[in-house]
């Protein structure tokens, strides 16, 4: 990686999008605790060819993008094209506007008047909030080709810029802010009938994933670790294969970068990359790692074979840490750690907001999770509240997230505050009543001067 700016960096699109890197020792002293939050609206770019120029998941081992850019869900209804990235961004901006009332020096009374509809604020705090990306793009391929690398501000992973230097993707940008909470807002085109809006997106802890590796190696024979847990809701890419088959494929990919076919054979022509080395953070391997990785030597961290791969290094030490267990295991929901609690709690606040604001949301509920080796829940040190708000093909869902964005944004904003400070909730017979309990962030303290959230960035 080249030399990085430590104070801020600038993303240029049709307007300037400023993204500050806050360093705790430089932050002004405030009467109230200060927390950092990123609102992360899904997608935003466009899918155009060639992948060599416009793709995502840049792999420095092969020197190419491994994926086309994924622009998100879209559906044409009565001649109007409804796009996930536009809806997510709109809700995200409305959420930011509310959260900015909690910033140091802002008019906190405006936020307090909103929050009092839900309960009593347990504690006064300040929140500095930003968004992970600018607004979306036109989907005219001809215009996109003329304007160069249009997907730069939207890519998930780092990528080479026009000068050949590695530019930050969205994960690096988010981690550089050292946030306590990241709220990732998504929608999908459709879902199986047993997935009701709104659904969380979760990644299991290292210990759960390690059980899958032991199973592949024959060191573990029973499937109870999978069947008797929330992992049975593993994300299925193609229903021709069972959730357990996809789970094993993803286990191989997580540890080696290579997925498996339905016969548990390594798909050698589908390398998915070493994701922890595709971003800038404190857990990348040592310089020159890509030369070692290109060999894929057996019995090493870069082996392509799950039978002898040896997960070692800073990233794998991180994965084994108690802090990742806090984020991704157990917790107040009984599974999924603080990520699951944050996701479900914000969903409950969204549903409660619709009710409190007189909007009918009888068809909405908090649904079961999509579980997989998702990128953001794993590669952020922050608490990641990640959810699918609903599904474009479902008329009821579509009506709510098109017509009730203000109410959804209010629920997200109040939910974020509650996760950081707590809210004393009133008694209510509402089915999806928020708990109002704050996350125990103190247990993420690495030392008296540094938290796990700060440790993500190697300044």
Estimate nothing, just give the exact number of structural domains.
Answer: 1
Low-confidence stretches: 1-28
Looking across the biggest beta sheet, what order are the strands in? 9-3-12-15-13-14
CATH fold group: Aminopeptidase
- Under CATH at level 1, the class stands as Alpha Beta
Task: Indicate the CATH architecture.
Answer: 3-Layer(aba) Sandwich
Number of strands: 16
- How far is it from the N-terminal to the C-terminal residue, by CA? 13 Å
Shape: globular
Distinct helical segment count:
15
Write the layout of secondary structure elements.
Elements: E1 8-12, E2 16-20, E3 34-41, H1 51-54, E4 56-59, E5 64-67, E6 74-77, E7 80-83, H2 84-99, H3 108-115, E8 120-121, E9 126-131, H4 141-146, E10 159-160, E11 166-167, H5 170-176, E12 181-188, E13 199-202, H6 206-217, H7 224-227, H8 243-256, H9 289-295, H10 314-319, H11 322-328, H12 337-356, E14 370-371, H13 375-379, E15 383-391, H14 395-403, H15 405-421, E16 423-424
Parallel strand pairs: 3-9, 3-12, 12-15, 13-14
Antiparallel strand pairs: 1-2, 4-5, 6-7, 8-16, 10-11, 13-15
Helix pairs in contact: 2-15, 6-8, 11-12, 12-15
Question: Could you walk me through the main structural features you see in this protein, from its secondary elements to its overall organization?
Answer:
It is a single chain. With about 450 residues, this protein is α/β, with parallel strands linked by helices. The chain has a single domain (about 10-455), classed as Aminopeptidase. The protein has helices at about 50-55, 85-100, 110-115, 140-145, 170-175, 205-215, 225, 245-255, 290-295, 315-320, 320-330, 335-355, 375-380, 395-405, 405-420, and strands at about 10, 15-20, 35-40, 55-60, 65, 75, 80-85, 120, 125-130, 160, 165, 180-190, 200, 370, 385-390, 425. A hairpin with a 5-residue loop joins strand 10 (about 160) and strand 11 (about 165). It is globular, with a radius of gyration of 22 Å. Residues about 1-30 have low confidence and may be disordered.
């Amino acid at each position: 990686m080249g030399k990085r700016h430590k104070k801020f960096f600038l993303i240029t699109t049709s307007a300037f999008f400023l993204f500050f890197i806050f360093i705790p020792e430089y932050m002004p002293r405030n009467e109230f605790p200060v927390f950092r939050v990123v609102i992360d609206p899904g997608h935003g770019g466009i899918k155009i060819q060639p992948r060599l120029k416009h793709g995502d998941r840049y792999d420095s081992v092969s020197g190419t993008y491994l994926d086309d850019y994924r622009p998100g869900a879209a559906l044409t209804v009565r001649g109007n094209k409804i796009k996930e990235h536009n809806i997510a961004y709109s809700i995200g901006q409305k959420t930011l506007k509310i959260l900015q009332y909690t910033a140091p020096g802002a008019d906190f009374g405006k936020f307090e008047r909103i929050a009092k509809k839900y309960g009593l604020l347990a504690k006064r705090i300040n929140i500095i909030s930003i968004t992970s990306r600018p607004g979306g793009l036109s989907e005219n391929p001809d215009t996109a080709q003329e304007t160069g690398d249009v997907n730069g501000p939207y890519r998930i992973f780092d990528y080479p810029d026009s000068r050949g230097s590695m530019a930050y993707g969205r994960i690096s940008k988010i981690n550089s802010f050292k946030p306590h909470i990241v709220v990732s807002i998504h929608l999908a085109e459709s879902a199986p009938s047993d997935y009701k809006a709104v659904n969380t997106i979760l990644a299991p802890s290292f210990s759960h994933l390690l059980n899958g590796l032991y199973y592949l190696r024959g060191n573990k024979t029973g499937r109870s670790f999978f069947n008797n847990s929330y992992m049975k809701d593993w994300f299925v890419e193609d229903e021709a294969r069972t959730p357990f088959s996809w789970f094993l494929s993803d286990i191989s990919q997580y540890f080696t970068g290579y997925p498996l076919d339905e016969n548990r054979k390594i798909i050698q022509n589908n390398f998915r990359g070493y994701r922890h080395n595709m971003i800038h953070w404190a857990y990348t391997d040592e310089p020159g790692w890509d030369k070692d990785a290109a060999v894929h030597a057996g019995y090493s961290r870069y082996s392509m074979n799950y039978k002898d791969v040896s997960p070692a290094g800073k990233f794998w030490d991180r994965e084994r840490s108690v802090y990742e267990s806090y984020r991704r295991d157990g917790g107040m929901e009984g599974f999924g750690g603080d990520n699951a609690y944050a996701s479900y709690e914000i969903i409950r606040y969204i549903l409660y907001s619709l009710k409190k604001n007189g909007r009918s949301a009888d068809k909405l509920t908090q649904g079961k999770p999509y579980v997989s080796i998702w990128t953001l829940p794993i590669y952020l040190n922050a608490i990641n509240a990640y959810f699918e708000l609903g599904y474009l093909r479902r008329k009821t869902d579509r009506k709510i997230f098109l017509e009730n964005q203000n109410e959804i944004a209010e629920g997200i904003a109040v939910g974020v505050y509650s996760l950081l400070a707590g809210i004393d909730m009133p008694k209510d017979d509402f089915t999806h009543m928020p708990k109002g309990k704050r996350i125990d962030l103190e247990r993420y303290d690495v030392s008296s001067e540094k938290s796990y959230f700060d440790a993500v960035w190697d300044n």
